[in-house]
Amino acid sequence: MENYEHPSEPIYQAAYAPAAPEHSGPGVKVVTWNIKFGRQVDEAIEVLRETPALADADILLLQEMDEAGADAIARALAYNYVYFPASVHDYHGRNFGNAILSPWPIDHPQKLILPRQNPRTGQHRVATRAIVTIGQAAVLTYSVHTETFWLGPKGRSEQVEAVADTVADTVAQHYDYVIIGGDFNTLTPASIAGIEERLARHNLVRLSAGVGYTAKAGEIRMRLDHIFGSDVPVLDKGVWRETKASDHFPVWVELARPDA
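^ that's the sequence the OP posted. Answer follows.
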């Protein structure tokens, strides 16, 4: 397993949005999707472009991506993006990490190396963090992918806590929103409750609560993917399950605008 240990590299980013859009919609749409090993990128692009609940997202969070897939999706949707790989995955020999995409400006990208490696492979995980400026609102944004069952719920909770600590470290700065979305590998209701409790200490709530299962393995249905954030009004939310691009399904929430 080859991990990328440098605190800020490698980084991949590009700006494909022609200009910051005029934000006249009722809310801010956030979508998160683990596209399994970044394999079905073309199908994912079609889903993200043609599905009304997902199209024209203000913030798109992707996991299990390589740089080619992240760039292809951003280019096809005319979005800006930043992507940090965590490692070269032993499954396919390509980069494996998280991306943030948006039609709005993305600034101050950071890679957060999460604590606790996979005890079987030694792989570590990262969170990709950046500031997305939607109109006049600064949104502190994270795309997160915690470890699988190999690590256990306590270790995954520590990874979430490490992300939350960086939110607490920046409380002196003004952000209109905080968004933390991604694949948290929460296999049980207790693991979901544990993460909710940890993030509640930082005044963050599960904005996507109640949307149902977000991944499927055979007949097993799991709630692995979530969007947490500042406690603001949720206008709508859901999961789009009409796709075979991944074993995970895209989760979306629409939030009240900061200036509403």
